[in-house]
Design goal:
Blueprint: H1 3-23, H2 25-46, H3 50-73, H4 78-83, H5 85-91, H6 96-125, H7 133-157, H8 165-191, H9 197-227
Helix pairs in contact: 1-6, 2-3, 2-6, 3-6, 3-7, 3-8, 6-7, 6-9, 7-8, 7-9, 8-9
C-alpha cells in the first residue's frame, strides 16, 4: 500500500461525507437551532439578572453543545450501514482506522464546528464577558472532537442495533463528565481571573490520546458489530 493511495482514499471519504452532509443541510442545522432555542430559554426561566447568567453561562453553553452533538451522533454511520458502503470500507485494502478517522472528522466538521462558530453568540446571550469568550471557544475546540471520538466508538459498538439513540446517550454521558468538568473549569477560572491553562492542558492530553486510540477502537468495534 502506497502513501498516495491511502491519502487519496482518505480524501475521497472526507469529500463524500461532506458532500452528503451538504445535501442534507436541514440535518446540519438541527443542532444549531437546538442550541439557540435552549440558550434563549434560560434567561426567561431564570430571569434577566446578569450576575446569575454570567455565573452559569460557561457550563450552560458546554452542556448545550454536548446535547446538541448527541442529536446527530446516532447518524454517524447509519447511512453507510443502510447502503452497504460500511462493509466495503471493512474489506478495503486501506487501514480501516484511518478511513473511520476521516468519517469522524467529517462528522465533527458538519456537527460541532457550526456550534463552535456560534458559541460566542451563545455566550453573549448569557452575558458572558467578552474576555472569556476566547477561552470558551478554545475549550470547545478541544472538547468537541474528544466527544466525537468517544461517541464514534460507542456508535460502532451499537452499529447493528436499531433505535440506538437512547442507548448511546446513556453510554456516552458518563464519559462526557470529565470533559465537561475540565472545559467548564477553564471557563470558570477565566471568569474569576485565575490561571485556566491546566484544565485546557488536560483536555489537550485527552484529545491526543483519543486521536491515537479511538479510531483503532472504533475499527475493532465495527468489525465485531458487523460480524455479530
Amino acid at each position: 500500500m502506497s502513501a498516495p493511495s491511502l491519502s487519496k482514499a482518505c480524501g475521497a471519504i472526507l469529500r463524500r461525507d461532506l458532500t452528503l452532509a451538504w445535501r442534507r443541510r436541514g440535518d446540519m442545522a438541527m443542532p444549531v437551532l437546538y442550541a439557540l432555542i435552549v440558550i434563549t430559554l434560560f434567561p426567561f426561566a431564570l430571569g434577566p439578572e446578569d450576575t446569575l447568567l454570567q455565573r452559569i453561562a460557561g457550563g450552560v453553553v458546554l452542556v448545550t453543545v454536548l446535547l446538541a452533538m448527541l442529536l446527530a451522533l446516532d447518524a454517524m454511520f447509519r447511512s453507510d450501514i443502510e447502503d452497504g458502503s460500511l462493509e466495503q470500507l471493512v474489506v478495503s485494502p486501506q487501514p480501516l482506522a484511518m478511513l473511520l478517522a476521516m468519517k469522524i472528522l467529517a462528522h465533527w466538521l458538519t456537527t460541532a464546528l457550526p456550534l463552535i462558530i456560534i458559541s460566542p453568540l451563545l455566550g453573549g446571550m448569557l452575558h458572558l464577558p467578552a474576555s472569556v469568550i476566547p477561552v470558551l471557544v478554545l475549550a470547545l475546540m478541544l472538547a468537541t472532537p474528544l466527544l466525537s471520538l468517544l461517541g464514534a466508538v460507542l456508535v460502532a459498538l451499537t452499529a447493528g442495533t436499531r433505535r440506538s439513540g437512547m442507548l448511546l446517550a446513556l453510554m456516552l454521558l458518563p464519559l462526557c463528565v470529565p470533559v465537561v468538568i475540565f472545559a467548564a473549569g477553564a471557563v470558570a477560572a477565566a471568569q474569576q481571573g485565575l490561571p485556566w491553562f491546566a484544565p485546557i492542558a488536560w483536555l489537550g492530553a485527552g484529545l491526543v490520546l483519543a486521536l491515537v486510540l479511538a479510531p483503532l477502537a472504533c475499527a475493532i468495534a465495527l468489525r465485531i458489530a458487523l460480524d455479530a
